[in-house]
Amino acid sequence: MLPESLSYRLKRRLLGPPLTTERLSEEKLSKVLALGVLSPDMISSTAYGTEEMLNQLVPIIGIAAFSLLLPITGAILLVLLFVTLSYREVVMVYTRAGGSYVVSRENFGPRVAQISAVALIIDYILTVAVQTVAGTDSLLSAFDPSAGWLEIVLITVGIVVLLTYGNLRGIREAGKTFALPTYLFSSGIAVLIIFGLVRAALGQLHAHSIHVTGVVVGHAGSGLLYGAGILVVLRAFANGGSSLTGLEAISNGIATIKEPRGTNARRVLVVMSAILGSLVLGVSILARITHAVPHVLGIPTVLSQEVRYVFGYSLAGKVAYYYIQMVTVLILWTGGNTSFNGFPNLASFVAEDAYLPRQLTRRGHRLVFSNGIVILSVLSIALIAGTKGDLNSLVALYAIGVFVGFTMAGSGMVKHHLTARERNWKVKLVINGFAAVLSFVIVGILAVVKFTEGAWLVVVLFPILFVVLIRLHKQYVTEKAELEENAPHAAEVPILRRHVVLVFVERMDLATARALQYARTLQSDELRAVHFVLDNQVANELEQQWIRLGLSQFPLDLVECPDRRLTRASMEVVAEAAEDGRTEVSVLLPRRVFEGAWRRVLHDRTADRIAGFVSQLPNATATIVPFPLGKRRRELVPWRNRDEPEAPADLAGAGAKAGAEHHGPMRGAAAIVHGRPWTGVHRHGDEEGGAAERKAATAAKAAAGGKGTEPSRSLLPGAMPIAQLRWRQRAKVGGRVRSVRVQPRAGVPSVECILADPTGQLLLVFQGRRRYPGVEPGAVITAEGMVGDRNHRTAMINPIVEIIRPGEVGNPPPAEGSTEHQE
Known about the structure:
Number of strands: 13
Distance between the termini: 26 Å
Largest sheet: 5 strands, parallel
Shape: elongated
Helix content: 40-55%
Number of helices: 28
Oligomer: single chain
Radius of gyration: 34 Å
Structural class: alpha/beta
């Protein structure tokens, strides 16, 4: 067992043990759970949708704002109706996750689909910021209404950090736990609305003064719009449009819904939209009745004021108030958490299409897209800090990306209907087409009326991000074309007649010795060490040391470098060696690998720079030979008997000299193996050597905290620990298949695999086979046979195998766009 690094042990402590690939399974949700899990983002907008409309009206027309509130709310609900009808068709046709991105890609191609990608990326980032800030506002409304922007920012950033940590640990966003806030909030607001309407009908609920501290109030005019002006009304409509965010969550997470997937998703979508429409309308009606107004800092919220007005200040009223505030905070923060699955999954889709960096396709320690989660967190925190936690400023940026996604989804469905012409396609064409046009018009309205309030940032950023994605894709395509150009013929190019190996030597130390030793393993016609003379005294000392160590038979070239341009001098030496066109030149560059960032700062990366330049020459290859220094280097040598004393330095030097005399150039350097004195030949079949290996492996395991590179697992019933195997012993072992390969020997194919259990590894060989059914990476098996030796490794030849659990070749794809956290 190899010891683990400190950073890995720390990550394991913080995030938990790593999850293996077979744990990557999806949990299908019923309609009830799907509604609770997928709708918090949308339903939670009830908490701030009405307030954002009043934010635009009250400062301009004062009390007259409440006369315009319901007509604007009605217009928003009309848009909700058509967008919902449009997405009913989307989820019936595209039952794999991805939402508007997949719809656009399938109908318009990946290039046009990047418009949807940019819109969704912006939407996901803003969702985290808006939802968490709104949740903080609701929290402070209940406990500290006088809090300033600094408290809002600090609490909100802390919540985002906690969400990031939880998602990096792989919290599964499914089941009753995450569905509960949706139902608690919806039922609580429904009770508030019903109770408020009853009290209003009985004459017990009345309007309150809007002239209070912390509220900017305008003066009502006359006319149809009460002096508001069409621009103000459109701004209020634009702010209220933020209530529709999250409607795409069903199509994004459709892969998590039980079959029949399309039908169930359609029903969940309709119920979610109906709940949202009812709650938003009810909150707006209560606002009109009570004249709850938005405060400058957003505290207390409009919803908080309504609860106070409706339930009063009695003991029961206080209980109801704190209950609704807490479930509001809970659903808002839960709604923000949905982006931590949506964004990483979307980023992985886009990266698979080569429009974002490939690193976003990799799953991390806990089988989540860790890179995407971290990026989302950083961008959201920057946005929260940049706006000082002002919800109104964030909402100004919010809705544009949402409605661009609606536009792309509707347009894609129009293309689909024109192409497929399925049953009732004309009716569906009208529905999706009207929704697309309506959404596009709203995008224009948002861009114009909110431009000076911050929407300019999205308007400017949108085309920039689109161009960046296209440019990244172009770079990937160029690299792929360059790598694949004549690739089938490149492997068939005749081997050059001569092979020259050059080892660039700065000074004689363990790192250089390791590179020289490795050079001797290469089949070369000429092997030379090269030192570039930057200091004559250093060169003379190296030359004397070379002779003193008995390396005189190993040529050492001292190359003048008067201008100290090492890269140029390196290229000249290599070009000279390969100038005949018949010589392949391999350059080995020792590199000292230092432990700790502060130590790496103390040293340069000359070897990397030289390798980069030398590799550009024809018939030349540069190889970095790393040599680790520090504690980790000593821990990474578990095979030497730890009880055997180290050879003294003078004996090691004498052995090197004697080796050179008896065995030719650099034979003495073999006395240094991986930076440690050589202590003898070791075979796995040797009982003493095996004992030493097991003892060293146990020590290494203890140094690593008793944990290897895989999660700790118990032995299979009836299986012997691999570390206790003896040569010529019949035994039964069990574990996990780490790797499988076909190894031809003497023209006969053999399947070779590595079997690992918590104590060690064993080589299994199946002779005369090209494949052994069930023996594949990740499979859990038992093997019974005679313990032997194969190429100095403990092995079983043609054992009897029982498949306990099949493996999964490669990384099986997750539920695409799933809004649940994978374990």
